[in-house]
Amino acid sequence: MNKGKIVQVMGPVVDVEFQEQDLPSIKDALTVELNGKVVMEVAQHIGNHTVRCIMLASSDGLCKDMEVTATGQGISVPVGKKHWDVYSMF
Questions:
Q1: pTM value?
Q2: Tens digits of per-residue pLDDT, 68-80?
Q3: What is the 3-state secondary structure (H, E, C) of the chain?
Q4: Per-residue pLDDT tens for 14-32?
């Protein structure tokens, strides 16, 4: 997986820089370890190998140079069998 580092935190907006040319796509999920995994979504490519992201949880505790992992896919939510059983009734 592609790794990057946080270069700026502005409330729920986080800029992440990647060393490689292969930037994550807009709407891809990125994760960072902060008392467990927290997720952010790529909102914009802003140049200089950097993407601007929106946090999906509090950004309290995030700081410059923290390692971020690009998942290579969009945000997902696990759904159990019970959920699917309800929808199969329609």
A1: 0.84
A2: 999 999 998 877 7
A3: CCEEEEEEEECCEEEEEECCCCCCCCCEEEEEECCCEEEEEEEEEEECCEEEEEECCCCCCCCCCCEEEEEEEECCCCCCHHHHHHHCCC
A4: 999 998 778 999 999 999 9
